[in-house]
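FAQ: What does the model actually see?

It sees only this:
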Amino acid sequence: MRGLSASSEREQPLLAKVAMCRLALIGAAADSARLLSLLNGPNNELDAKLVADGAITAAFPRADAVVSVTLGGCSCVLLEGLGHYGRMRSDAHVAGPGYAFRRGLAVAAMAFGGVRLLVMKPGVCHEGSLRVASLGQFLRFGLMPDDWMIAVTPES
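And it is asked to produce this:
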């Protein structure tokens, strides 16, 4: 895996299509159709799309299917309640799109033996180290300010 520069010309098509301040990308060694289905939510309340842009998928292992997850063109509301990227509110954990996102991520982590989450922000160089957390740790503590990519595993 290598870092990404959001100013790369090859990245611009995906980032230009999404009017957002953050883009949540989920990668898993999985069937892409099943991963899309799990991340869209049971009622298709989220917008999960397969990412084919090689500049973006290069940050993930080759075997990973990579999916962007947004709501209304942005991932910010989905990241609420995950620490660094949102207010820590008790209601963010029980209802709404952030809950649907975490539920989909949890189900995918259990179904595929783990997932990788990368949160991109246009104009920011995305590189760093991979942090590994159990699903319980991730749901309890969320994202840290220095997270680049986090691998969420079903085991503790």
